[in-house]
Amino acid sequence: MHVVRTMATGGTEAGVRKLLSGLSKERFEQTICTLIEDPSSVIPTAIRGICLGRAPDKPAFLVPQLARIFARERPDIVHSRNWATIEAVIAAWVTRVPVVIHSEHGRDLGTMGPQPWRRRALRRFCYGRADRVFCVSHELREYYRQELRLTPTWPFRVIPNGVDTQRFCPNSEARRTIREMLRAGTNTLVVGTVSRLDPIKDHATLLAAAEMACERGLALQLIIVGEGVCRRMLEQALANRPALQGRAHMVGDVNNVADWLNGFDVFVLPSLSEGMSNTLLEAMAVGLPIIATAVGGNLEVVEHGISGLLVQPQRPEEICSKLEQLGSSAALREKLGQNARQRVLSCFSLDRMLKSYEQMYCELVTPDVLRCTALSRA
Known about the structure:
Layout: E1 2-4, H1 11-22, E2 31-36, E3 48-54, H2 63-73, E4 77-81, H3 87-94, E5 99-104, H4 117-129, E6 132-135, H5 138-147, E7 156-158, H6 172-182, E8 189-194, H7 203-215, E9 220-225, H8 231-239, E10 248-252, H9 257-263, E11 266-269, H10 278-286, E12 290-293, H11 298-301, E13 309-311, H12 316-327, H13 330-347, H14 350-364, H15 367-377
Parallel strand pairs: 1-2, 1-4, 2-3, 4-5, 5-6, 6-7, 8-9, 8-11, 9-10, 11-12, 12-13
């Protein structure tokens, strides 16, 4: 049973969907438990979903409700993700679920710096009751190791995200279709990003960089794919940037992300923090040259000057400079894009990710564990 806040748009949710569709149906029966009602949540029709129905803006003590669900459903594994579902660890522990796993997939603005002592204490308590705790990047693991004062020998693992390199691959027909829709000429540099519209993604810096590049004479179109709480703010910011009028488009959520990526010339990820960005991996798999901030998991994915270009966060002038550099050299764009795809094929394939999860689940759920749990429940 996967426990997540919602199944709406987001990197964590995308990772869960990959497990739902990719793990062996013969070996695993998967269930989704969400905390809040969200009309944008999407659960595959073949997967059973359970929702606690909590209000999104009201804190609540979730352990009793989760414990009742676990006692009724009797899962072999409960796998919770991020701070929002940390109480699932306690609920699974008290109901004697055979295997309890918790994973951390990223940070928001509220978890950029030191955490309140109550949150640190609860996290330490829950980590100690889980059979496995892991992060999606080494940087994220080290953040929580230092934040919770865990010893270097504490068994804190890393399982990187993976991308379907058959679905996300260079596609000349998709490129032609998207660029015709955008009316982008051969000399137009189509710069794009794909992410939820959230403060942590810092789209404002990308807007500033794009405006600067346009003012310097770069023939540029900016495409922002995604939805989120910052949409209205970004629309207002666009309205106040005359140089971007007619050159910037917010297209919302789309169901053909791979096609849109193929229509781009450059992918930019201006985030303030990242666990391990799924859309960054997808853009690299498509073969796009990358400009990404040197934060979090980006540093583990992008090799500066080889498979992409790294910049400091909140530095629009740096992004502008890199856009000019890539805009003036098709050969450099091609070289970085080819290296980016090879990097993903070698280190961040979906098959590799699925095998890591399957191995983890299977090594923890042994016959002895199930036998002991059955006896204790009896």
